[in-house]
Structure formats: C-alpha cells, structure tokens
Amino acid sequence: MERPNLAAAIDAAAESLVGVLDSAVARHRLAVSPTQLRVLSLLSSRPETNINGLAELLDVVPSSASRLCDRLEAIGLVRREADPRDRREVRLTPTAAAEVLLGEVRSRRHDAVRAVLERMPARVQQDLLCALLAFGQAATAQPPDSSARSA
C-alpha cells in the first residue's frame, strides 16, 4: 500500500478549509467583496498601515489600493487619519463598523470550522490540534543556516 503524500494531503486539507471558510461567509450577504474584507482584516491587524504599505501587502500598485480604500471609506468602513509622527503620512484605520463586521465574519468562520470538527472523533481532533501547533511552530522557526551544512 502506497504511503500518502503528506504535503499533498496538507494542500488538499488547506483547500477544504478555505472552502469551509468561504462558504461560511458567502451564505450571508456582506456589504463588501472578499478583497475588501481582506483589506479590512489587514488594516485591523496592522494599525499603522498607509496606502503604500497596504499596496505592498496586497501586491498591487498604490493607486489600486487607494481606490479600494476610497470605496471602503465611502461606506463607512475605513477612515484616513494623519499620522501624529508625520502629518504628511496618512494612516488607514478600520472604523468601529468594520471591526463589528470582521467580528461577525470571524464568528461565522469559527462556527463553520467547529461544525466540521464535530464530525471528527475527539481523538482525531486532539491529534489535529497537536499537529497544527507543531506545524505553526515549524513554519515560524528560523530555517537552519544552509551555508553551515555545505561546509
């Protein structure tokens, strides 16, 4: 019997997870597109972001990031504020309404994942938790210096 390819299994599981997360949000009519939701999430987790920083995070040109923010500002989800350290810089800040929206989306996603987990045996859930924690640690660990190995 051929051993399953772990990387392929993780890739397939990641696709399944994205599908679960996307469907949890798609069932509810949101006032924003998936891209706008991503922008709000990025800005919420990076409070000192400006247009250039957002463009870099999104891998788009600054004018595209600015237009995205124009639309979010028009519907009351983003506020532009002068940076107190440099008045020439403008920070992008999610409004309270944006934070409420992000909280609702997060809650829907957690409920959807929880529903999938409930279909799994408790032992497998615990194994998955341990594996995900270990994967997260390995993903954020510094890789060994490759030059030390070649010496």
**What top-tier CATH class fits best?**
Mainly Alpha
Described by strand count, sense and barrel closure, the largest sheet is:
2 strands, antiparallel
User: How many domain modules?
Assistant: 1
Structural class, from secondary structure content?
mainly alpha
Domain HTH marR-type: 3-138
InterPro entries: ArsR-like_HTH, HTH_ArsR_DNA-bd_dom, HTH_MarR-typ, MarR/SlyA-like, Tscrpt_reg_MarR-type_CS, WH-like_DNA-bd_sf, WH_DNA-bd_sf
Keywords: DNA-binding, Transcription, Transcription regulation
Protein name: MarR family transcriptional regulator
Question: Key terms for this structure?
Answer:
mainly alpha, HTH_ArsR_DNA-bd_dom, single chain, DNA binding, Arc Repressor Mutant, subunit A, 151 residues, 7 helices, 10% strand, two-stranded antiparallel sheet
Topology:
Layout: H1 6-26, H2 34-45, H3 51-58, H4 62-74, E1 78-83, E2 86-94, H5 96-117, H6 122-140, H7 146-150
Antiparallel strand pairs: 1-2
Helix pairs in contact: 1-5, 3-4
Description:
With 151 residues, this protein is mostly helical. The chain has one domain (22-137): Arc Repressor Mutant, subunit A (Orthogonal Bundle), CATH 1.10.10. Helices cover 66% and strands 10% of the residues. The chain is built from 7 helices and 2 strands. It has a two-stranded antiparallel sheet with strand order 1-2. The two termini are 39 Å apart. The model has no long low-confidence stretch (mean pLDDT 89).
